[in-house]
Write a structure and sequence with these properties.
The protein has 143 residues and is of the alpha/beta class. It has one domain: Ribosomal Protein L13p, Chain: A. The chain is built from 5 helices and 6 strands; from the N terminus they run βαβαββαααββ. The strands form 2 sheets. Strands 5-2-1-6 form a 4-stranded parallel β-sheet, covered by helices on one side. It has a two-stranded antiparallel sheet with strand order 3-4. The longest helix is centred in the first third of the chain and has 13 residues.
Length: 143
């Protein structure tokens, strides 16, 4: 009897909750672990066309660490849509104003550019301090 290929169905997927303390973690290495967990790549039932990932809660994102001179040299751009409406901030300014967006931007760049990735990014919860409102989900530490 030939072996059938297994394809996960959206209703069959059990989603876990993980919490990550970003204090002292390197930005890119942490973003890679988070992106793989959001996509579900560490699960045996992973399929690229189905969202099999888990929820990730990141705390203490304001204490993220970067190597080299990225605090002064890495620049985040955004555009208002109007002529001359480009704005830029360094990583140090972005960490002072909106530290959550630093991790969200890094993880978003590691996800595919499609509607599944937008659904996966909604499962990412980021908080600047140590407190988060997801204690009811009993998140486990990210392995």
């Amino acid at each position: 009897m030939p072996q059938k290929t297994y394809s996960p169905k959206p209703g069959e997927i059990d989603r876990a909750w993980y919490v990550v303390d970003a204090d002292g973690e390197t930005l890119g290495r942490l973003a890679t672990r988070i992106a793989d967990t959001l996509r579900g790549k560490l699960k045996p039932q992973y399929a690229p066309h189905v969202d099999t990932g888990d929820f990730v809660v990141v705390v203490n994102c304001e204490r993220i660490r970067v190597t080299g001179r990225k605090l002064e040299q890495k620049i985040y751009y955004r555009h208002s849509g109007y002529p001359g409406g480009i704005r830029q901030r360094t990583l140090a300014e972005q960490l002072a104003r909106r530290p959550e967006e630093v991790i969200r931007h890094a993880v978003r760049g590691m996800l595919p550019k499609n509607r599944i990735a937008r659904a996966q990014l909604r499962k990412l919860k980021i908080y600047a301090g140590a407190a988060h409102p997801h204690d009811a989900q009993q998140p486990a530490p990210l392995p």
